Write the structure tokens for this entry.
Amino acid sequence: MDYKYTPLRNWLLERDALSIRKLEDNSEIPRDTLRHFLNERRNFPEKHYGPLLKELVKYGFQQD
């Protein structure tokens, strides 16, 4: 697993009220991409980080 995205993974896991599917839809990320990432089945694709970050900022996520 790519440790670059560990803070993102931890942040999402701490907020179980957020809808993963809705985040994927709003960020135009293929379905189950985040679910597989959160369950440590796959690394998170770099190309999807920008759109996801744009959406997560709305919920208080801050990039280090």
